[in-house]
Amino acid sequence: MLIDATSARLRPRLFASTAFAAAALVALAGAASAEPQFVTSAKPGPGLYELVFSAPMNRVYVAAAGSRGATDTSVVALDPTTLETKETIALGDNPVFGLAINNTTKTLYGTQTRDGHIAVVDLASGKVVAEIANGEKAHVRELAVDEGANRVYVTVTGRRDTPSAVWIIDGATNKVVGTIDDLPGSVTGISLDAKGKRLFLSAMESNEVHIVDLATNKLVKSFPSGGESSINLTYDASGDQVFVANQGSDNVTVLDAKDGTLIKTLPTGGGALSLAIDPERSILYVANRQGGYVSLVDTKTLEPIANVVTGSMPQTIAVDAASGNVYVSNKLKVPMRPRPPARPADGAPAAAPGATPVAASAGSPPPAAPRGPRVPMIDPFGDTVSLIKP
To answer: Is 67 exposed, middle or buried (0-12, 13-18, 19+ CB in 10 A)?
Structure first.
């Protein structure tokens, strides 16, 4: 049993692995020529977010943000074959979350979302050489690098009535040299068509895809994403199509990049979050964070290939197209804190079990009932980086 005929959605299936036997699950569609392989996994540090692969540096770089308030955050450099930690780039109390890399200049960029900066790391020295800001505490989120033009594009996500923007950073000077402003719909994801001089942006609140013409840096077209909570996207040059991860509708929509025509909706898994393409093998990888597995889709036929469980909550994916290696960062599961006791109908605060009730003073709101303590979560498959092969 590989595909649920009713929903046409692949379901993960247990697959034995010596390195990660309890978590390596693989389900195959009948058309696949070979089974994807779960190779190995590592736990390089706490609070993992995004990762990138660098062929010139022969490293996988992963952001280790730690817990809130941590003073020892870092970017960890892993051996791409063994996932052994080779170097650690210390960031102190200012973590990065989103990552992008310029392999030509050997420069790593990270979003310091808490204070609205972009950290610039020289990979040769392993040092932060600049922190770029533009205004106060911009919600910087995702990055795209144009290596040929030495430009970095950063989404700045607006919420509700605040429009979003894109910063344009000159990689030679590490300065913001332009902005694309007044973008509607809470822009989150970004993908670059360097040859066509286009930026594709996903707008999570309005469920749209925006196209920016990089010759003029103007928004020239918007069209529906075809899904809900469209958080990230990636451009596929081979088919001139855009894949959109829709976190709210648990699917990926495929759109014609010219006019936004919906080509197909691909049910993938709960909380479809991030995407990556292997152009050599025509495979799309989808991280389904809530579903807990990565989906593989043929970009030519738009048919599912397999689902692979890589860890607890897949976050981001990086592809080494030369070897076919695929790297996945997996977040730690976080337990929910118990809800506070319900308030009585008259508005007085409810007493915690065993506590003395406290009366609300006239004219002031009642104090909030305390929430229960968070129970520790033991998750051996979270905060991991996994290596799989198609």
So the answer is: exposed
| Cα-based distances in Å from 293 to 3, 71, 97, 137 | 15, 31, 21, 33
For 150-209, how does the pLDDT look when each residue is reduced to its tens digit (9 = 90+)?
999 999 999 878 999 999 999 999 999 999 999 999 999 999 999 999 999 999 999 999
Q: DSSP H helical segments within the chain, as ranges?
A: none
Domain map of the chain by residue range?
37-333+383-389
Say which residues have a Cβ less than 8 Å from residue 354's Cβ, sequence separation at least 6: none
| Single pTM value for the model | 0.85
The architecture CATH gives domain 37-333+383-389: 7 Propeller (2.130)
CA atoms of 40 and 77, how far apart (whole Å): 16
Strand partners, 304: 297
- Size of the chain, expressed as the number of residues it contains: 390
What is the residue-wise DSSP string for 280-308? TTTEEEEEETTTTEEEEEETTT--EEEEE
Q: How many beta carbons lie within 10 A of that of residue 228, not counting itself?
A: 14
| CA max distance for the chain | 72
